[in-house]
Specification:
alpha+beta, 4-stranded antiparallel sheet
């Protein structure tokens, strides 16, 4: 082989290596973005169910215009969406202590995809009887 052919092979291998590294980085960014989106969607679902819980009478399994019954354990999330929802393929969901109050409840979601800083996408959703406010923690 000539010297030009060796240089072209080496340059080709370098370009392929760079393309692979860039592809992996793009895939990781896409996975993180997707995980953020599904955690937010799950929190919105839980928030809507919490508002529904708030407005239902106690005799029908609701809060009777209060979030107090939503405790900061699996039972609290279970009252909204079933205990299996506390840890699904998208993330882990809890109710922040001390649990629901008469006026609001804070839902906490942690994604499953590890980010570059070794943390996970994390959000809080503050819910009252009319509003849902999302806070990005990480």
């Amino acid at each position: 082989m000539g010297q030009q052919q060796l240089i072209l092979i080496i340059l080709g291998a370098i370009f392929v290596g760079i393309a692979v590294v860039a592809g992996v980085a793009i895939f990781q960014d896409s996975a993180i973005d997707h995980n953020r989106a599904v955690v937010i969607a799950d929190l919105k679902t839980l928030a809507s169910k919490a508002q529904h819980y708030y407005s239902r009478p106690e005799i029908m399994g609701g809060g009777n215009n209060s979030f107090v019954g939503l405790t900061p354990d699996a039972r609290g999330i279970g009252m909204l969406a079933g205990t299996a929802f506390t840890d699904n393929a998208n993330g882990t969901y809890t109710i922040n202590p001390p649990g629901g109050t008469a006026d609001q409840v804070v839902l906490h979601g942690v994604g499953k995809v590890v980010m570059s800083d070794e943390t996970y996408p994390t959000y809080d959703m503050t819910v009252d009887n009319h509003n849902q406010t999302l806070s990005r923690l990480n």
